[in-house]
Design a protein that fits this description.
By secondary structure, the protein is an alpha/beta fold. Helices cover about 35% and strands about 20% of the residues. It contains 18 helices and 21 strands. The strands form five sheets. Strands 8-13-12-11-9-10 form a six-stranded mixed sheet, with helices on both faces. A hairpin with a 2-residue loop joins strand 14 and strand 15. Helix 4 packs parallel to helix 8. The protein is elongated, with a radius of gyration of 30 Å. The mean pLDDT is about 90.
Length: about 500
């Protein structure tokens, strides 16, 4: 008689699966709570103590860590000396291991959980059995996922357990135990940048393709889900999110989290096309749209207030990929849902995003850094020009600084308080970004109120000169260049305001 060892925390589908194994001729061995569930269901099942000839001890911490278990799992069936050893010690081989692990993840997600509670939910015997079975997958079938039960039974009935399938299940085991251990390591690790970095992620979805149709892709979310994430948004309407949709929506969420006031952010290719604020959401939309009424087509819109019918009608008039907001009125939803392919997402708005670190892939590794969480404050500004900024200019500078940190470097934002007017992104040199952003902005209403913000210092005085000659009366930049004095002198020569923020906001 073949033997199956079953010890599971997740008992979904357990009894019917175990019943099928018995019908296929398997002798069942089980532990603790799993044994009680199976026995209460009327199934014939041995307790683990009958195999180990040793009682569970230390409050269940030790029950399967025994040679009669692990020798039965690890013995190679193709080696006569291994089988002779089993016979010598009267150890029966184990042919199937069905194990899933203590609920460490759900435990640490509970409010008020203590460290001792978390520690007690670190599984030791389960991963050990799974790893032994997976190592010996040529002879032992390792089962870690209840979703596989039906497929396994069907294959056993058809005698269709191939070596490829065995290897597939073994790989799934090692992926599972690696993620499990990584989550424990993450919980216990105090250092932000440990010597070895293990980051557990769960698959969110397979993408139709990546950035381009010839690139395969999938999305993964953190094992401990972040509430403020496009991957945890509620998709009310529209088709599957694409790879580019997810990246753009993430950029939009990062940007709009900077603003408490009623704000609309439009995003294209991960850069803000326009940011607008207003007394009403409709007026905020008007400002965001007029900031760049060309780039927004085919873009993403994020709003930090419930979408009303008036705003929905205006958004309905143009082609958009995604609208993401805290909620939609029923009338607004009906207006927008008339567009079959428009994706409507809801996500609670917040200005406090708890995720502190971000990971970026490079060839051969990753780089990890703290997110740019530095806020903007007039208290940190240093006026370095003779000309002094007005209150309105200072408010506009704060707004522009919040925007520029989310623009690809070299980044320049021309804005008035509550509205971007021109965005210069990703240029190889700063003056090109200055020129581009001003050319976009100078044709728009409100340009006479505009200030210019730079994500990094002006390396030369040409940026100050070009801006002043084209109507910009005040600029804010971090300072820190060896040629700062040239920029200051140029500002004084031209009678414009120059402010040093003291904080660089590169975004590569």
């Amino acid at each position: 008689m073949t033997r199956a060892l079953i010890s599971v925390s997740d008992k979904r589908g357990l009894v019917p699966f175990a019943q099928k194994l018995i019908e296929l001729g398997y002798e069942l061995v089980s532990t603790g709570g799993t044994h009680h569930v199976l026995a209460d269901a009327g199934l014939d099942v041995l307790e683990i103590e009958a195999v180990t000839d040793f009682p569970e001890m230390l409050d269940g911490r030790v029950k399967t860590l025994h040679p009669r278990v692990h020798a039965g799992l690890l013995a190679r069936r193709d080696l006569p000396e291994h089988m002779a050893t089993l016979e010598k010690f009267n150890i029966k081989p184990i042919d199937i291991v069905v194990v899933n692990l203590y609920p460490f993840k759900s435990t640490i997600q509970k409010e008020g959980v203590t460290e001792s509670e978390a520690i007690e939910n670190i599984d030791i015997g389960g991963p050990s059995m799974l790893r032994s079975a997976a190592k010996n997958f040529a002879s032992v079938l390792p089962v870690v996922d209840p979703a596989d039960y039906d497929d396994i039974i069907a294959r056993l009935v058809e005698n269709n357990i191939s070596s490829t399938y065995r290897k597939q299940l073994a790989a799934k085991v090692f992926q599972h135990t690696a993620a499990y251990d990584a989550l424990i390591a993450q919980y216990l690790t105090a250092s932000e940048f440990p010597a070895q970095l293990t980051l557990p992620y769960d698959k969110f979805d397979d993408m139709r393709y990546g950035e381009n149709p010839h690139q395969q892709a999938a999305a993964y979310k953190t094992a401990l889900p972040e509430t403020y994430s496009v991957l945890n948004a509620n998709i009310l309407h529209g088709k599957q999110l694409s790879y580019n949709n997810i990246r753009d929506a993430d950029a939009a969420l990062r940007i709009i989290s900077e603003f408490d006031d009623t704000t609309v952010v439009t995003v294209k290719h991960m850069n803000p096309a326009g940011i607008g604020q207003g007394i009403t959401l409709e007026s905020a939309w008007d400002n965001a749209f007029s900031a760049d009424d060309i780039s927004i087509f085919g873009g993403i819109v994020a709003l930090n207030r419930e979408v009303d019918a008036a705003t929905a009608k205006k958004m309905h008039a143009i082609f958009l990929e995604i609208i993401i907001a805290p909620s939609f009125t029923q009338e607004a939803y009906d207006i927008l849902a008339a567009k079959k392919n428009l994706r409507l997402l809801t996500l609670p708005f917040t200005t406090i995003v708890p995720q502190k670190l971000e990971v970026t892939s490079i060839l051969g590794g990753v780089v990890v850094q703290e997110r740019d969480l530095v806020g903007e404050s007039e208290a940190n500004f240093e006026v370095v020009s003779k000309a002094q900024p007005t209150t309105e200019q200072l408010h506009a500078m704060i707004f522009a600084q919040k925007a520029v940190k989310h623009v690809k470097s070299n980044a320049i934002v021309v804005a008035r308080d509550g509205q971007t007017l021109g965005v210069g992104a990703g240029q190889p040199n700063r003056i090109d970004s200055v020129v581009y952003s001003i050319q976009k902005a100078e044709k728009k209403a409100g340009f006479d109120e505009a200030v210019l913000a730079s994500d990094a210092f002006f390396p030369m005085s040409d940026s100050v000169q070009y801006a002043a000659e084209h109507g910009i009366k005040a600029s804010v930049e971090p300072g820190g260049s060896i040629k700062d004095k040239d920029s200051i002198a140029k500002a004084d020569e031209l009678g414009v305001v120059l402010v040093f923020s003291g904080t660089r906001h590169f975004k590569h």
